[in-house]
């Protein structure tokens, strides 16, 4: 019997995971990536237990074992004073409560593990230098057009082509991106370059007036990943790889904890870019065409769930297509399953961003004091608040 054929637009974490999930459930898959080679930017990711459950199911966890870092805890601290607001124990607790670990990893390590697993599938193929310019629905499926003139047909087409998705643009019309008034910084620095002044080997969200930062450990714990988000409207360029300079980063974070200053001073590659928000889409499907990952539900990074949601999407989509019934209904069912959850995560990401940036002392006390009390008196309460997100089973 001829295999059903899926075309996946985009070879990011979402596209690769989707290709893998489909290949493992009997599809012939072609992933089309515009870049000359499969690669990810130099930055970290936190993968919560719900994401690890997907990686387990896809057989990817053993491939990242040597590269991941499992933090003891996630903490919220004040950026300027270092004062701890709450601590969420993770090592051991995450597995016991949510069935899986909470880990931190370099994006490239996760991405290359997914690529390796995908390439090991006899029915999967990855084509690079393949920029999609549009699609057309046709009898039995859909075809994409590549900028070099080829046309590639699939019984289904999955648009996993990121925040500025071409497939979404065609399906839903113009990009409704709005500048959030926030600018992000990122840097990765070897711990060895920081001496005594390394951020603690856990995940820390450093909160403050009109800005926050996050420090994590990646590459097995040998490197610190820094992300800083600052309310600022003088910079509006969206993208991941726009170089920034240390003086400007220090103007934002130089008077915060010395360990943050030392990361910025030691950094040899600092990048900054503007954060855009996009409202939830009215639809993700157009007959045999659907969207996945950031293309379907771009979100602010303040919940560290964008890549994890893309992983969840991948297996939910493969499961929907494994049911009896026609593929168009399967894609509709995938959208119906995923939309409420990702819409909630999108909204919480916006809320978190405000929560980390309280503008006045009064609002800081009103927000953080109850959290500090709850964390000390009833840590289980803080864990319980994460159940819906970390305990999700696909
Ligand atoms: C600062 C920051 C920190 C974050 N931290 C976390 C975190 O800790 N945990 C977490 O889960 N998420 C995190 N995220 C979110 C996460 O990075 C994204 O949600 C995730 O990478 C989305 O993956 P994707 O595959 O959907 O899209 P992308 O990674 O954008 O991949 C899209 C791919 O499609 C390709 N492409 C685009 N257009 C075309 C085209 N026309 N033709 C062919 N190919 C095309 C691109 O080259 C790219 O390879 C963070 C985001 C930011 C900004």
Explain this structure to me?
A hairpin with a 4-residue loop joins strand 14 (211-218) and strand 15 (223-231). This protein has a domain at 5-41 and 107-176 and 278-354: FAD/NAD(P)-binding domain (3-Layer(bba) Sandwich), CATH 3.50.50.60. Helices cover 37% and strands 26% of the residues. With 394 residues, it is of the alpha/beta class. The protein has a 7-stranded mixed β-sheet with strand order 5-4-13-14-15-12-16, sandwiched between helices. Strands 7-2-1-11-18-17 form a 6-stranded mixed β-sheet, sandwiched between helices. Strands 8-9-10 form a 3-stranded antiparallel β-sheet, covered by helices on one side. The protein is globular, with a radius of gyration of 21 Å. The mean pLDDT is 93.
Helix content: 25-40%
Largest sheet: 7 strands, mixed
Number of strands: 18
The chain-level mean pLDDT equals 93
Q: Give, in spatial order, the strands making up the sheet with the most strands.
A: 5-4-13-14-15-12-16
> Remind me, CATH topology of the domain at 5-41 and 107-176 and 278-354?
FAD/NAD(P)-binding domain
Q: How many helices in DSSP terms? A: 13
Write down the oligomeric state: single chain
Q: Which stretches are poorly predicted, pLDDT < 50 over at least 5 residues?
A: none
Derived from helix and strand composition plus strand pairing, the structural class reads: alpha/beta
What binds here, in terms of ligands, is:
flavin-adenine dinucleotide
Coarse shape: globular
Cofactor: FAD
Domain FAD-binding: 6-348
Protein name: Salicylate hydroxylase
Organism: Litoreibacter janthinus
């Amino acid at each position: 019997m001829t295999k059903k054929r899926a075309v996946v637009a985009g070879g990011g974490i979402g596209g690769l995971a989707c290709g893998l999930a489909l290949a493992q459930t009997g599809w012939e898959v072609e992933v089309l990536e515009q870049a000359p080679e499969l690669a990810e930017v130099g930055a970290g990711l936190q993968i919560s237990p719900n994401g690890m459950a997907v990686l387990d199911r896809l057989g990817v966890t053993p491939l990242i074992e040597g590269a991941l870092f499992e933090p003891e805890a996630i903490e919220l601290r004040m950026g300027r004073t270092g004062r701890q607001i709450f601590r969420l124990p993770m090592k051991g607790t995450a597995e016991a409560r949510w069935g899986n670990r909470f880990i931190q990893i370099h994006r490239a390590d996760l991405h290359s593990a997914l690529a390796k697993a995908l390439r090991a599938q006899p029915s999967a193929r990855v084509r690079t230098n393949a920029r999609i310019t549009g699609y057309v629905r046709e009898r039995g499926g859909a075809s994409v057009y590549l900028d070099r003139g080829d046309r590639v047909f699939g019984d289904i087409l999955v648009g996993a082509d990121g925040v500025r998705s071409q497939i979404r643009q065609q399906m839903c019309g113009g990009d409704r991106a709005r500048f959030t008034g926030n600018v992000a910084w990122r840097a990765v620095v070897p711990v060895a370059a920081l001496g005594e002044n390394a951020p603690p080997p856990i995940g820390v969200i450093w909160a403050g007036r009109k800005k926050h930062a996050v420090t994590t450990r990646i590459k097995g714990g040998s490197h610190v990943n820094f992300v800083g988000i600052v309310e600022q409207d003088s910079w509006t360029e969206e993208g991941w790889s726009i170089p920034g300079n240390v003086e400007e980063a220090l103007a934002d974070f130089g008077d915060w904890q010395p360990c943050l200053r030392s990361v910025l001073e030691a950094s040899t590659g600092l990048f900054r870019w503007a954060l855009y928000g996009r409202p939830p889409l009215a639809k993700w499907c157009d007959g045999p065409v659907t969207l996945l990952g950031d293309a379907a539900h771009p979100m602010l990074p303040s919940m560290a769930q964008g890549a994890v949601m893309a992983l969840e999407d991948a297996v939910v989509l493969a499961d929907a297509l494994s049911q009896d019934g026609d593929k168009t209904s399967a894609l509709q069912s995938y959208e119906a399953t995923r939309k409420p959850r990702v819409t909630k995560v999108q909204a919480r990401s916006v809320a978190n961003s405000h929560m980390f940036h309280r503008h006045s002392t009064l609002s800081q006390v009103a927000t953080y004091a109850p959290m500090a009390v709850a964390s000390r008196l009833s840590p289980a309460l803080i864990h319980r608040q994460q159940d819906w997100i970390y305990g999700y089973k696909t």
